[in-house]
Amino acid sequence: MRILAVVESKPQIFYVGTASGGLFKTENHGDSWTPLFDDQPTASIGDVTLAPSNPNVVWVGTGEPQNRQSSPWGAGVFRSNDAGRSWSFLGLEETRHIARIVVHPRNPDVAYVAAVGHLWGPNEERGVYRTLDGGASWEKVLYVDEHTGAIDLAMDPGDPKTLFAAMYQRQRTGFGFNGGGPGSGIYRTLDGGTTWTELTNGLPEGDKGRIGLDIYRQDGNMVFAVIEADKRDPTRGFSFGGSQGPRKSGVFQSLDRGDT
Q1: Element (H, E) at 25
Q2: 102-123: per-residue pLDDT in tens?
């Protein structure tokens, strides 16, 4: 299983997206399941998100965003207005791997996409995208470089113009994997994505890897980040996720919207 999306007013109904097996829906707490994506051009689901104001509006970003030896890529963004019975293709095909979609709490046509981009090489179709018209058009609102995509997004439900984005530099090769670099970091917008500020105060210095984000629903000032930071050992070199060197990875909390 890659991702879960629950109809909060009717929690017996939820959707499950898989890395390479498609999208499924249950209406009876998981006793039975219906496949929803078999007729689409990809079976790799990166994220499934329900519009908070209308759970019949289902957004799907395709392409497995996690780092594995075999991470199938997707075909862009899809949307259903009838709870998954039919789908419309909304573009962003060259983003390849979509990690997160967040939707405005009151307007189901305003959404943001965290696009990781190509796994095996540089491309410019990565970063954070915004639509104000239900996916008919897209604007890339946050871009670091051709090697760095967006791996997570979090929106303050009480102030949907405030979003946090986790940027992630990564690339696989035929003989290894680079899961981090100077492009990785956390960014914040207070105006719905028009302008962004990188947040660094109190966070690990140097190169970072994968980052996860979340906001406490009842207090938008409380933000959490799980950060993979580099570990260096002069005798062993550089690695992410290894056991050598000082440990700077961990869980970080902010009580002031990421200022510290």
Answers
A1: strand 23-26
A2: 999 999 999 999 999 999 999 9
Q: Which residue, among 99, 110, 76, has the nearest Cα to 210 in the 3D structure? A: 99
Per-position b or e across 220-251, b if 16+ CB within 10 A of its CB: bebbebebbbbbeeeeeeebbeeeebeebbee
User: HEC string of 120-168?
Assistant: CCCCCCCEEEEECCCCCCCEEEECCECCEEEEEEEECCCCCCCEEEEEE
CB 213 within 8 A of CB 223: yes
Cα distances (Å, whole numbers) of residue 235 to 82, 240, 241, 242: 58, 15, 17, 14
Residue of 97, 101, 150, 154 lying closest to 128 (CA atoms): 150
pTM of the shown model: 0.92
Task: For residue 187, report the phi and psi dihedrals to the nearest 5 degrees.
Answer: -125, 155
CA contacts within 13 A on the Cβ side of 3: 26
Question: 145-154: per-residue pLDDT in tens?
Answer: 999 999 999 9
